[in-house]
Specification:
By secondary structure, this protein is an alpha/beta fold. The protein has a single domain, classed as Rossmann fold. Strands 1-3-2-4-5-6-7 form a seven-stranded mixed beta sheet, with helices on both faces. Strand 2, helix 1 and strand 3 form a beta-alpha-beta unit. It is globular.
């Protein structure tokens, strides 16, 4: 078991939050503090990210197994954003006794687009890999900036993102490439309909990585999913549309037993 850094807020039934690729728990902090008003919120740095130790090999099930060991003893509600959503989805599948409900934010059970599935074009991810290898910190900032471009609160969103990026060192290239490989290869579409716990998905209308139209495909796979598309939001709706996302999650948690 490796050492996973975590930040804990509040008291009560636990809600565990998993951030996205190349980020760390600091990006959740303002959101998590508000969510923790009447519950406990635990934010982990993923392996190799932020202040957490790395793991070998950097593969989906290896990460999920480490996270499962770090979960609280009491069954928790699991929130995953982007890559963190893929990990959360697999974690709920492998450890159903540890997870009471699942919330996926700007996440996709299959990130790459195919003839019958909406996602990211393979060439876009390939270009991203090339840029990361040249200058990771600049590429990450540009990537995050694009996700809030044109939004009314763009300046404040960018400020929060920049502060989070500067708080910790950029993950090692091996970790960044491993995370991208998970995004390229993970296919969890069969997992969604097999889950028996409550599931909520929150997508952004203008997300360029996880298209909002994906909502129809996910609902076709698993009609029991509670789906929300945030108007005007991109890939970080918990920053750009904080209060709206908070209200959706709070209501869902109350109905799911938190």
């Amino acid at each position: 078991m490796i050492n996973l850094y975590k930040e804990t807020y509040g008291q009560g039934e636990p809600v565990v939050m998993l951030h996205g690729w190349a980020m760390h728990s600091g990006l959740w902090r303002a959101f998590a503090e508000q969510l923790a008003v009447d519950r406990q919120v635990i934010c982990f740095d993923l392996p190799g990210h932020g202040r957490s130790e790395n793991v070998q090999p950097y593969a989906l099930d290896v990460l999920v197994d480490e996270l499962a060991l770090a979960l609280p003893e009491q069954p928790c509600h699991l929130v995953g954003w982007s890559l963190g959503g893929a990990l959360a989805l697999r974690l709920a599948e492998k450890s159903p006794n540890k997870v009471k409900s699942l919330i996926l934010i700007a996440s996709n059970p299959h990130f790459l687009s195919t003839q019958d599935w909406l996602g990211v074009a393979p060439n876009i991810l390939a270009d991203f890999v090339g840029n990361i290898q040249k200058n990771a910190s600049v590429t990450l900032l540009r990537f995050m900036s694009l996700q809030v471009k044109g939004m009314p609160e763009m300046k404040s969103c960018l400020k929060q993102i920049k502060e989070a990026l500067q708080e910790c060192a950029v993950p090692e290239l091996e970790v960044l490439m491993g995370g991208l490989q998970i995004l390229k290869t993970a296919d969890l579409r069969s997992t969604l309909p097999a889950l028996t716990l409550p599931v909520q998905m929150i997508l952004g209308e203008y997300d360029s990585l996880v298209p909002a139209q994906l909502s129809e495909q996910c609902e076709s796979l698993a009609p029991q999913i509670e789906m929300h598309v945030i108007e005007g939001a991109g890939h970080v709706p918990f920053i750009s549309h904080e209060q709206q996302v908070l209200a959706l999650i709070r209501d869902f948690l109350l109905r799911s037993g938190a």
